[in-house]
Q: What sequence folds into this?
């Protein structure tokens, strides 16, 4: 089938449109806190669902904000989306939240777009630049949750003698590795496929290492959407990070 928009162009359109809608809701709704977060989630989901139904009516969708369907398990193409990653940061008026748009095809992620509306930025896997090399002699840095840093972070920080940079959503953290703002992001203790699919697709396109914390592949469009842990880092750091995790944790925290 021939579409008016390529998948890459559509992913960028979706990320931009949802970002604009989320900013509008935050600016105009008069809501605060959890109510603002709920309104933003709902508005972005409705917009994305409508655009996907219009532009890719035959594709399946897995979204944090919509009821799952077993139909996606037999589909060749599945959009994996998180309309608002970092609801807490969004509701607090911060900029470190994101919109995730990923496309999975026949067993693999083939496309990802991560929108960071607070910075007027969209990273798309087909155009993202290679992750920049660190400055000579620079201390290694790790992105870490500003509200719920996992226990796995400390052994990795110690093994690498790294500094920590707290920030919001998973998409923003992985984008920070892609952009060279930090060298790695390590998470364990709970995420879902929509939390990482789009940023992982972008990270892979930028030449970064992506895996589970035991080094196994990240699998998407699985029957169970739970995907609790990941490592995204510069490739040369992966052996040290994975070894530190294996030596110092049981993988459960």
A:
């Amino acid at each position: 089938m021939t579409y008016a928009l390529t998948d890459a162009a559509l992913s960028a359109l979706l990320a931009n449109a949802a970002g604009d809608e989320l900013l509008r809701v935050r600016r105009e709704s008069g809501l605060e806190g959890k109510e603002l977060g709920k309104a933003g989630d709902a508005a972005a989901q409705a917009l994305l669902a409508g655009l996907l139904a219009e532009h890719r009516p035959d594709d399946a969708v897995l979204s944090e904000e919509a009821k799952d369907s077993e139909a996606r398990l037999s589909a060749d193409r599945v959009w994996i989306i998180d309309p608002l990653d970092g609801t807490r940061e969004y509701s607090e008026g911060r900029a470190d939240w994101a919109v995730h748009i990923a496309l999975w095809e026949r067993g693999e992620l083939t496309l990802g777009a991560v929108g960071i509306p607070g910075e007027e930025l969209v990273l798309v896997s087909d155009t993202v630049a290679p992750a920049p090399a660190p400055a000579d002699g620079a201390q290694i840095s790790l992105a870490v949750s500003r509200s719920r840093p996992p226990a796995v972070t400390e052994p990795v920080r110690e093994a690498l003698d790294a500094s920590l940079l707290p920030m919001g959503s998973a998409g923003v953290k992985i984008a920070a590795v892609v952009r060279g703002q930090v060298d790695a992001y390590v998470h364990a203790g709970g995420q879902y496929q929509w939390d990482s699919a789009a940023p992982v697709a972008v990270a892979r396109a930028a030449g970064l290492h992506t895996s589970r914390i035991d080094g196994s592949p990240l699998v998407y469009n699985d029957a169970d959407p739970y995907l609790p842990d990941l490592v995204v880092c510069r490739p040369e750091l992966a052996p040290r990070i994975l070894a530190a995790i294996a030596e110092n944790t049981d993988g459960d925290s």
